[in-house]
Amino acid sequence: MNRWEWIKFLGIELSRVGIEVMKDEFPWKDVDVCMDNEVEPPIEGMRVTCPKCGKELRWIRFCSPAITWKHECGREGPLAICKDCQKQVYFKCEILN
């Protein structure tokens, strides 16, 4: 079993491994800037689908705009999105200022 299969098998909440279920979304204009930065999921073997359409989510490396870093509220990390539904589903904040 890979790490993702163990997490699902044990019923570990994603928040316990640092992955947030998105409640508030980042502005899509900021996400679009990062669209070419596709990355692997933060957990080996992690495959998740869009809760709206059921398609597999795409992981990108999201980095908030320079103004957010200037005001000490910048965020960076893997973000799971469904481009078709314009839905942001999971985010793992790896860098925060």
Can you describe what's shown?
The structure is a single chain. 20% of the residues lie in helices and 24% in strands. It has 97 residues and is of the alpha+beta class. The protein has one domain (3-96). Strands 1, 2, 3, 4 and 5 form a 5-stranded antiparallel sheet that branches.
Could you spell the SSE succession in H and E letters? Answer: HEHEHEEE
Q: What gross morphology would you assign?
A: globular
End-to-end gap: 35 Å
The share of residues in helices is 10-25%
- Detail the poorly predicted runs: none
**In this structure, how is the largest beta sheet organized?**
5 strands, antiparallel
- Beta-strand residue percentage: 15-25%
Average pLDDT over all residues = 90
Cα Rg: 14 Å
The counted number of beta strands is 5
Q: How many domains comprise the coordinates?
A: 1
Task: State the helix count.
Answer: 3
- Would you tell me the structural class of the helices and strands? alpha+beta
Question: TL;DR?
Answer:
This protein is of the alpha+beta class and 97 residues long.
Features:
97 residues, alpha+beta, five-stranded antiparallel beta sheet, 5 strands, 20% helix, 24% strand, globular
